[in-house]
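Researcher: Structure for this, please.
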Amino acid sequence: MSGGNAVAAILSASAGLAAAVQVAIFGRFGDRVGTLPAFAFSCVITAVIAAAILVIGQRSVGGFATAWHAPKWLWIGGMLGAFIVLSITIAAPRIGTFATVALIIAGQLTISTIIDRFGLFGLQQVPFTPYRVAGIILLAVGALLALKR
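Model: Predicted structure, token format:
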């Protein structure tokens, strides 16, 4: 694995760990202050951190202008991020961290298989194989089992 790929793999695994912790924390935060205030506050914190990283990394806020002029459909990623944070804030206290994460992962792998198969969003097409089908089925069963207490 090349250096760049190793960094990407480490970041991805770390993000997976962080996501599970995020589910637990946001569920608790939403219970404590209310779902919508917790959601809004988290979005503000995310925006502040993202702007700081942009300024530190590029020594400029010019990236905002570049993003503004990008095709508007690309902004869906930010909207989906907000939807994910809102969803986990609602779901975690009701069904638990494990079930919330299991359902998210099952959903992510299902849609990512479709994105790969059809090369959506300009990405490379990756064949839909029996192994991928089996993986989706096993993950879906696991996610449903996670709902059992």
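Researcher: Any notable elements?
Model: The chain has two domains: 1-95, 96-149. Residues 1-95 form one domain.
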